[in-house]
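Q: Entry one of two.
A:
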Amino acid sequence: MSTTPARPGPTAANSGISVSALMTVVALVGFVTTLDNTIVAAAAPSIGRELGLNLSTLQWVGIAYMLPYAGLLLAAGAVIDRLGRRRVLLAGCVVFAAGALLGGVVRSAELLIAARVTQGVAAAFIVPGTLSLIRTELPEPRRPVAIAVWTAALAAALALGPWLGGALAEHLHWSWIFLSNLPFVGAVWLLLARTNPAESSCCDTPVRVGAAALVTTSLVLLTASVVTSGGIATTVLLGGAGLVGLLAFVGWERRAAVPLVPVRLWRNRVFLGANALVLLWGLGISGIVFFTPLLYQDFLGMGPEAAGLPLVVVAGAVVCATPFVPAVTRALGPHRAVCLGLLVLAVGLAHLAVVNDESTMAARLVGLVLAGTGSAFTAPITGQALEKIGEDDSGTASGVLTASRELSSAFGVALIGIVLTSVRAGEIAEGVAPGPALGTGYAAGLVVAAVLQLLGAVLALVVLRPVPAVKSALAKEGEAL
């Protein structure tokens, strides 16, 4: 395995930010940037009624955040490694807050979409910048805890978003789904502003603007192909253009003297494997989270706020399991801990599929708790990926990992959506009522998601397995030669 020798890790004495402050930053950034991916869905009907927006325009309120976020991540990671984490994070917080404030006060579709774009651009820099801080500012024993906190924050936001959006729109006003971002981002900015300002850039090589523009455009097109509803022809056109662009980017990178993403990252077994695991997890779980509120409304007859409560159970299980993740990882090793987590997640999803015909929530609680608990133990995926790369590549590596997660979320919704709608259409064609037909389609989606987690469990045992010290030393010697 090829890795970049890392500088000695920081200690509590020489770190630019205290451990407790960094843990707080990690939790707040992970929560608020993920929340903005999910919170709009339940509030969309309220926004549409007040502003007179049709369904197509409403969809762009959500898409406008996802596209720049996913598309800019690779380029943003390279920028962070060259300009410095603190500088980029402070600027990103200001831009994110500006977008949130604009979204909360505007009353036109054009300005609301502009506000969401602004937030998406800022998130693309804030997220990898925060993950990079974990690698560069924390002593090694504290990093697994920080990654566990990060994973819990992401999972909690993913699960709480639909319920919180519905609750704010129902009891306050939909503008609060944007204005509520301000305290989170403000706290992050204040914590970072108090750190040591004497941060030098990690790399003197300038960002290759052409390569950055090509990969950004390609990722935007790929994401757009699965989150827009322009029909099969549009999906194929956008997806094909994005894929061609990515292939061109890979070819350009291979010939570049200084590639945007260092070659040593692609040669790193753990880093590549971690990205594959992130993709498998997101392909399964993201689509299930997206369609769960729909099932509970159309099949069980719940209201918008109540339909989000099952995902609150998942979030609660993630938070409760997170404190145990570092100890289990140390005891079993990261490969076995992640394998165990994905197996538990798969069992939870399978249980939900088995009891899907039940009309009560009680029958689903076991599956929801297992899904949340298993998801918490996927935290070592990110930790291992960042641990096996050098500090100078931490921003780029974080950008790649986050891009994998965002793309898997978009494609996960598309994949589970195809399964759900296909099975539902077949059931309706056979005379089944729309509600039960939706339930059957959802159960089929759960089975597909469970299979993807089983594949991930097997892969984790291979790619996250620790490399013997002798092989690691030989790899480093070979790299030096």
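Q: Entry two of two.
A:
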Amino acid sequence: MQLTEVEKQPASFVIPMVAAAGAVVGLLVGTANNRPLLGVVIGAVLLAALAWGVMTFLHEKEKQGRWGIFALFVVLGVALGGVPGFVMGVIFGAFFGWYIYWLEGGHYRERLPPYLSSGQVLWEYTFRIICGAIFVFLITPILVVMPLSFNAEDFFTFTPEMLRFDPDGYSLKHYRDFFTNNEWQRSFKNSLIIAPIATVISVSLGTLAAIGLSQSHVPGRRAIMAILISPMIVPLIISATGMFFFYSMIGNWMEGTLGISQNVSGYIKVILAHAVLGIPFVIITVTATLVGFDRSLTRAAANMGAGPVRTFFKVQMPLILPGVISGGLFAFITSFDEVVVVLFVGSAGQKTLPWQMFTGLREQISPTILAVATILVGISIALLTTVELLRRRSERLRGMSPG
């Protein structure tokens, strides 16, 4: 049951809550100007006064009140900070114009059960704020890198022109360098060669392992599962050290016995090493998909005369395909972004994109790294979005969520 009507909230509740939000905004603005404590005090006082004025004079005029708050913040932002202040004024003006009336009208309880006490409502929104703060803490480093990739100068910091939103402070030259520089393009091509092949191997072996381990009659399946997913648990530097000694012997055997060139054997070693890192992701996602799989379907197919291979491809694979693709995407991301193992196992001929980025940071501090990082973030977001869509499709196919 949801509330259809809510009561207007008293000023004794609204003003302190708005003042608390103003203190947070003041802390951000004050910290940027090396006056955090002063910013907290000024932010709390100004927003408390604004909330009082809105509740006193614009109590029944929400539309006018929102536009008035928005205009006030925009004017203050332009007066104090120019173009950057204008942007911040637009953001904060829109937020507080909504926030004050959201509190004052009691709309914060509309989507909550009506039987919750005030303390429970407070905890509900405190929990959401904590989750939001964690999200901001995790995402901020990425958000900082992306605008820096458009820096017109060869710096890793925001220039005064960028802070003023001056068009002369922004440029695509780092992206042009990435697409025209032979070193970057060679490493990018290596990543596009290694990651897909390693993903195919990971998906093939990981899917078979997950199906086998899902059978209740397999002895010691818990121990086998722990061993197979150990590359996710063991520190990567330890795995890379072990792979260095193991794959060096395999490389010597391929070059000495089979006559394979050193460059080709290097690719094979890196691909196999990345496949080992990707297999645990495939096993976990496919195993999770098999939890809701109806095994009577495979028994029915067997009763109709279908062999194990035909049953797998015609009955089982279509239903677990979302989990298989999700595991494959995780394996691809792992291989595409991995740098430690390729440093141990590979050679200069197998230099991947993350390796080139590491070299750029260590040797020449190339700002092109920022452009490459932004491109990788875009690729990762696209892949993770695909994973989420496949997860939802898998739940619908297994009847765990409405269609």
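A: Comment on entry two: Residues 97 and 353 are 46 Å apart (CA to CA). The chain has two domains: 11-115, 182-397.
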